[in-house]
Amino acid sequence: MKKVEAIIKPFKLDEVREALSEIGINGLTVTEVKGFGRQKGHTELYRGAEYVVDFLPKVKIEVVIADDLVERAIESIVSTARTGKIGDGKIFVTAVEQVVRIRTGETNEDAV
């Protein structure tokens, strides 16, 4: 099993969720996060004063899936989240050693 974490622009969340649902991924966790990468934030004007916004709003999607779904999930996220502009986000894939569903005690892929 693998954990796929995707940091994307907030307005792309619904599209990405639908794309993941189409390939059979039903459960996911979404967190509102802030951060920056190469884009290093930007400057804004507020009441005539210029200020720097260092951390930009993003959304982090986390899914734990079977190994055979990982490539399809990555392709779905990339194709739906890409705008072609800086700040589209990143995807991280890590190994998951164990999963336990608290309610039933099911483990690993049965718990996902």
From TrEMBL:
Pfam families in the cross-refs: P-II
GO cellular component, one term: cytosol
GO MF annotation: an example: enzyme regulator activity
Residues of the signal peptide: none
Keywords, alphabetical: Nucleotide-binding, Phosphoprotein, Transcription, Transcription regulation
Positions where O-UMP-tyrosine occurs in the chain: 51
PANTHER family cross-referenced by the UniProt entry: NITROGEN REGULATORY PROTEIN P-II, NITROGEN REGULATORY PROTEIN P-II HOMOLOG
Recorded family membership: Belongs to the P(II) protein family.
Subunit structure: Homotrimer.
Name of the protein in question: Nitrogen regulatory protein P-II family
